[in-house]
Amino acid sequence: MSTLEWRKSSYCQTGNNCLTMAAHPAAPTVRLRESEDPGVEIALTRRALAGFIRAARGGRFDGVGQNREA
Description:
Blueprint: E1 7-8, E2 19-23, E3 29-34, E4 37-45, H1 46-57
């Protein structure tokens, strides 16, 4: 049983497909998970998370997961 306090993204509307986030109290990490699959978490340092957010805002991941062989 997780003792983390999970918070839902403010961008999440309705339904269960939302990003949730929690700060780990005993480690310098932030945990992320999707509400549809709460058993899978990733842990990032705050610095790594900030870098990821900057890259996402800058469009670095645009098109990831799309088939480029069309």
